[in-house]
Amino acid sequence: MVVVFRVDASLTIGTGHVMRCLTLADALREQGAECHFLCRAHPGHLIEAIRAQGFDTDTLPLQPETLEERQDTPRLAHADWLGASWQEDARWSRELIEGLRPDWLVVDHYALDRCWEEAVLPPGCRLLVIDDLADREHRCDLLLDQNLGRQADDYAGLVPERCTRLIGPRYALLRPEFACLRETSLARRAMPRLKRLLISMGGIDKDNATGTVLDALGDCPLPEDCRISVVMGGNAPWLAQVKDQAATMPWPTEVAVNVTDMAERMVQADLAIGAAGSTSWERCCLGLPTLMVVLAVNQRIIAGALQAMGAGGLIGGSDTLRFALPEALRALLTPNTLTTMSRAAADLTDGQGLTRLCTAMHAHSQAVSDE
């Protein structure tokens, strides 16, 4: 089976779309699939990181000047994320995809919709769309939206009736180590105590929410023996400043970059302060209590739903957390609060979403061969 991924990372887009596609690509490769990536070289791209994991990656040209040239379809809310008009992107992508002759095309991009998909998809190729927004049409065979609060009916009229919709955190794309460490992580939370604090605002954190959190912790009632671990990506624009700031913290504070052991770090953490993006499902799988920061519009639904379920505490956006964090932390340290939040989070996903998606893809492929 040949699978082609169309996905981007950038300072604006972040790294989460590429990371979840890499998780899927790793699993498919283990099952014998040949995986290729098509990416545009935006500032903050992850093209070399994808290649470092052994996947062939073609680079699409950055052509922002074409964005306004051809708008014969309604402009999408995230059209600027593409770095070219959708027509130019489709032209370049189609040439590359036709040469690869894929069985599946996987699209994880807010700036692409049915128009692009119909222009690019080769005959006989199946389409998987990974989405979080439910704000545009697709012509896909499979659709995955792993977000809490989303319903299958949210995509009514946006996807074909025959499309299989995989909805909710049950299908969250987590690397296998999260499911493997789930039992260990949940067991160590039976008697919670705040000794290890994990801070993770995504791979980019373009507005330096990490630095704001470190500032706000100065007014927080952390135990004297608490240790703080900050995780950042190598492309984060504020990395050097955060490292300098960490050196002045009242508690031992490390800044870890481009980590490959995030699951182990979450297991050892007693509390996380993190962005309400796709990493939310990693934390939930491991029952890690979390105070969430909303850093993008699409994270509001996730954060609100998690808070409503008691599976996380919401401290707002980066503009409010300087004042909201101390109060939220005090409330979280009341008796049984950490335990209750941990259990509520763990109930949302078991870490097997990757297996469920691969099974669905193979079922669709088998159906094609039987026709």
What does the model show?
With 371 residues, this protein is α/β, with parallel strands linked by helices. It folds into 2 domains: 2-174 and 351-370, Rossmann fold (3-Layer(aba) Sandwich), CATH 3.40.50; 176-346, Glycogen Phosphorylase B (Rossmann fold), CATH 3.40.50. It contains 13 helices and 13 strands. It has helices at 16-30, 47-52, 86-100, 114-120, 176-187, 209-217, 239-246, 262-268, 279-285, 299-308, 321-332, 337-346, 353-370, and strands at residues 2-7, 34-40, 56-60, 104-108, 126-130, 142-145, 164-167, 196-200, 227-232, 253-257, 271-275, 290-294, 313-317. Helix 3 runs parallel beside helix 4 and helix 6 (209-217) packs across helix 11 (321-332). The longest helix is centred in the last third of the chain and has 18 residues, at 353-370.
